[in-house]
């Protein structure tokens, strides 16, 4: 997250527009993978912000691997999200307006291992048992996915 840290050094905690990607990854039983985040204690999707020169698919694949140990063999564009519903103030005070490209993935490999710096736990959830404690920027994405 070098670029965002460099940018934050210049602008402080003021709101910025942050482009990124996330992955709605399902297993063979059609369960959705969620990460219990260490920054806010809420469940969310694997994902993160765009680094200079990266494509959004590269972001999705990189973040999925960094946060879960899984490698996406293929990604499918789900939707692009932005607007007031994607404003978020992190617990440490940084403010962002997220522009999120969401991908679905059910073709992946690797061994599930969580990144202890960003997450507390990784777990697959039945679609009718998604926890209520969802990180605010991920909630509209997950809701739309469940309706699709």
Integer average pLDDT: 94
State the CATH topology: Nucleoside Triphosphate Pyrophosphohydrolase
Sheet having the most strands:
5 strands, mixed
Q: Which word captures the global form? A: globular
SS class: alpha+beta
Distance between the termini: 32 Å
What is the rounded Rg? 14 Å
CATH homologous superfamily descriptor: Nucleoside Triphosphate Pyrophosphohydrolase
- SSE pattern, N- to C-terminal: HEEEEHEEEEH
How many helices does DSSP assign? Answer: 3
Strand content: 35-45%
Total separate domains: 1
Helix content: 10-25%
CATH architecture: Alpha-Beta Complex
The CATH first-level class comes to Alpha Beta
Low-confidence stretches: none
Number of strand elements:
8
What does this entry look like structurally?
It is built from three helices and eight strands. By secondary structure, it is an alpha+beta fold. It has one domain (2-147): Nucleoside Triphosphate Pyrophosphohydrolase (Alpha-Beta Complex). The strands form two sheets. Strands 1, 4, 5, 6 and 7 form a five-stranded mixed β-sheet that branches. Strands 3-2-8 form a three-stranded antiparallel β-sheet, with no helix packed on it.
């Amino acid at each position: 997250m070098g670029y965002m840290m460099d940018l934050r050094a210049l602008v402080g905690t003021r709101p910025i527009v942050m482009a990124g990607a996330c992955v709605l990854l399902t297993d063979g039983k059609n369960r959705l993978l969620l990460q219990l985040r260490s920054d806010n204690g809420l469940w969310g999707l694997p994902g993160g912000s765009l680094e200079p020169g990266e494509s959004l698919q590269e972001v999705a694949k990189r973040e999925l691997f960094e946060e879960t140990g899984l490698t996406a063999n293929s990604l499918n564009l789900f939707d692009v999200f932005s607007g007031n519903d994607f404003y978020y103030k992190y617990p440490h005070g940084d403010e962002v307006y997220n522009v999120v490209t969401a991908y679905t993935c059910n073709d992946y490999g690797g061994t599930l291992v969580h990144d202890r710096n960003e997450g507390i736990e990784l777990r697959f959830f039945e679609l009718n048992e998604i926890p209520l404690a969802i990180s605010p920027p991920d909630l509209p994405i997950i809701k739309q996915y469940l309706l699709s």
